[in-house]
Please model this.
Amino acid sequence: MFVKANEINLISKTTNMKNSQLYKGSLNTIIMKLLEEKGRMYGYEITQKVKEITQGELNITEGALYPALHKLEAEGLLDVEMEKVDNRLRKYYKLTEKGTTETVNRLAELEDFIKNMQSIVNPKLSY
Amino acid sequence: MFVKANEINLISKTTNMKNSQLYKGSLNTIIMKLLEEKGRMYGYEITQKVKEITQGELNITEGALYPALHKLEAEGLLDVEMEKVDNRLRKYYKLTEKGTTETVNRLAELEDFIKNMQSIVNPKLSY
DNA sequence: TTCTTATACATTAGAAACTTATGTATAAAA
DNA sequence: TTTTATACATAAGTTTCTAATGTATAAGAA
Model:
């Protein structure tokens, strides 16, 4: 899609994966969790779902999403089915068995990560 | 130095194949939060403190830590003082005024990040 | 009707944060 | 006396992202 010169900055400020570096490394976990919940989703749908859940705060860029999906597929964690809807191509992704198992691990890791970060940020409470 | 089986580096568990990329991007926030709390710390002390807080789960590597400290200093967020203790060099870092302000922002971002991740992982509860 | 936005996929150059390995040096413990 | 702990550092290579670009169709606004 083309974007005119003076719109680029405005758009990219609200379009990228939120300022902070914190989201780095969390994309795969997000994708896998959403697929676990929904059964199957296509790429664009994932970006919209994440935007909705985070009330527009987290916007997954296509340059991050599609390579991530391809990689998860290559690792055998996702299966893909192509479908044509309204004369437009969709690639529906779903977790493989291996992917489902791995999702459990990743979610456990996410919980650990959050606990650890909270321990650092809020040393008074011990999690 | 060797890293034992169960420890996470700033990214991955060495032997365990478990791939927790989640810590990627959180190092600066960790450093700044600890400095805010402690007043001043030196690099090695930071690694030990994080290890202690996370009960050995998060092990910051030197190759990640020192460049991060140098960069924060270059950005004017940290000040450094050299001291010789027991005939060994220590570089004590502390937050500048700018760094203190920035720490507030980064901690707010971390909170947002955690909230968003929890919204994705646990869609039933709305945070 | 024509221009723009939305939907839907994709790739690539470059930035940034890491890992892994290596290096120097001193002090304490086994 | 050999290893581990303390304390700094850099550098090559990997991964994950951003920003930009590309193709194509459908819907909505001007």
Residues 16-121 of chain A form a domain with the Arc Repressor Mutant, subunit A fold (CATH 1.10.10.10).
